[in-house]
What we know:
It holds the Pfam family AAA_5. InterPro entries: ATPase_dyneun-rel_AAA (IPR011704), CbbQ/NirQ/NorQ/GpvN (IPR050764), P-loop_NTPase (IPR027417). It is a single chain. The protein is α/β, with parallel strands linked by helices. The chain folds into two domains: 2-170, P-loop containing nucleotide triphosphate hydrolases (Rossmann fold, 3-Layer(aba) Sandwich); 176-293, Helicase, Ruva Protein, domain 3. It is built from 13 helices and eleven strands. It has helices at residues 2-6, 13-24, 39-50, 65-69, 74-80, 91-98, 112-124, 160-163, 176-186, 193-211, 221-238, 248-260, 274-288, and strands at residues 29-32, 54-58, 70-72, 87-89, 101-105, 126-129, 133-136, 142-147, 167-170, 215-217, 265-266. Strands 2-5-8-1-9 form a five-stranded parallel beta sheet. A two-stranded antiparallel sheet has the order 3-4. A two-stranded antiparallel ribbon has the order 6-7. Strand 6 and strand 7 form a beta hairpin. Helix 10 (193-211) packs across helix 11 (221-238). The protein is elongated, with a radius of gyration of 23 Å. 38% of the residues are buried. The model has no long low-confidence stretch (mean pLDDT 93). Bound molecules: adenosine-5'-diphosphate (ADP) and magnesium ion. Residues 39-40, 105 line the site of magnesium ion.
Amino acid sequence: MRARVAARIVGREDELDLVLAAVAAGRDLVLEGPPGTSKTTILKAITAEWGIPLLFVEGNADLTPAKIVGHHNPARVLREDYSADNFVPGPLVEAMERGGFLYIEEFNRAPEDTLNTLLTAIADRTIAVPRVGTVTAAPTFRVIASMNPYDNVGTTRLSTSVHDRLCRLAIGYQDEPAERDIVALRAGGAEGELRTALVADGVAVTRATRAHPDVRQGSSVRGAIDTVLVALQLAELRGIAGPGDDRYAPTVHDAMVVALSGRIHLDEAAETTPERVLREIWEDRFVLTPAAAAPG
Ligand SMILES: Nc1ncnc2c1ncn2[C@@H]1O[C@H](COP(=O)(O)OP(=O)(O)O)[C@@H](O)[C@H]1O
Ligand SMILES: [Mg+2]
């Protein structure tokens, strides 16, 4: 079973084992890591293999308990009065009844009363829904929460009772070879010298956004995927066949601005712009160390 799940994921063997062990042990879990670190990919692979649903909810200030539990259809309530029959289940009730994983991204942003509703479901495996009755969780029901460690809505605001009920796994960025494999897999395109060079360059410049001193949070692997996809299109429009072309490096720069400028979050104190940061990263790779840009 583990091998079949692993076949859907590039790398991440240790993280997969730990998540699998926790959910197989019947535990609920918080995954703590920045965006693009395979959290959703791992959960999709496990739930697909188990044949159970994966329900997504985004944690934010508007996520009321009613939104995750469900509501009565107002038009039908007017006609028929409240009944279990005109109840529209929310993702929590649906996950409990169908034995799915409820995946709450950025759950530290959810309001206190919503967290309390979740805690009840986690601790009791049942919840009481007014005018419907008691909903009991199927055995494979799990709550998986995620948190971005760079989020400035502090994870410290979560009460000890929340932390005390969840296992925790910290997930960092992939290493460079794994990130290249992911981008090569997701960024399609005809294989060849151009694509190989773009994958290596797209991954390198994206990773550099995470290490730049003026950046609080750099781009995820999604930025690298988009850099490659945009650059491939630009190369075709401009008739660039490979990395040996003089216009190759400027084309990577153009793609970086489109794919990455909206994805890097500068330090509040930094007196620069995303475009300037990207220019520096590009110069580091293509101008100051021209060897890196050489064909092959
Ligand atoms: N280990 C991986 N194997 C294959 N694709 C991956 C992997 N990690 C990330 N991806 C790809 O990168 C993107 C972001 O990954 P995702 O799992 O959604 O990250 P997260 O949920 O941590 O934000 C998706 O397009 C996904 O297909
Ligand atoms: Mg995700």
